[in-house]
Write a structure and sequence with these properties.
Number of domains: 1
Mean pLDDT: 93
Strand content: 25-35%
Helix content: 10-25%
Distance between the termini: 30 Å
Largest sheet: 7 strands, antiparallel
Length: about 110
């Protein structure tokens, strides 16, 4: 079985930012579509290979167990900001995590 990655997202609106929360969070599909957490029944349905994940997500920051995009993408019309995060397989070893980090060029 090949290793599987997940891409999650968070959307912050001006209203949710005032409350100190996100408006929506969930999982991205390998085709770029998204489902909010309320719609997710099985996270394995969102698993993809690294190449597919990198088409959706441009991770730049190492969070220790996953990688975040920086900066957030801003929709100037609505004020929404979105960020994707790349999650390596849970079974990834520390050395493989470091190889992924080097491959995508993430910084700490």
């Amino acid at each position: 079985m090949r290793e599987q990655f997940h891409v999650t997202y968070e959307i912050v609106t001006p209203e949710s930012a005032e409350e100190g929360d996100v408006a929506e969070r969930g999982y991205a599909h390998s085709n770029g579509g998204r489902d909010s957490l309320e719609c997710v029944e099985n996270v394995d349905d969102y698993a993809m290979d690294l190449r597919s994940a990198l088409r959706i997500c441009s991770p730049a920051f190492d969070c220790g167990r996953w990688f975040d995009e920086e900066p957030w993408t801003l929709n100037y019309k609505t004020g929404e900001q979105i960020r994707h995060s790349l999650h390596p397989p849970r079974s990834v070893t520390p050395s493989s995590y470091q190889r992924i980090k080097r491959l995508i060029g993430a910084t700490h």
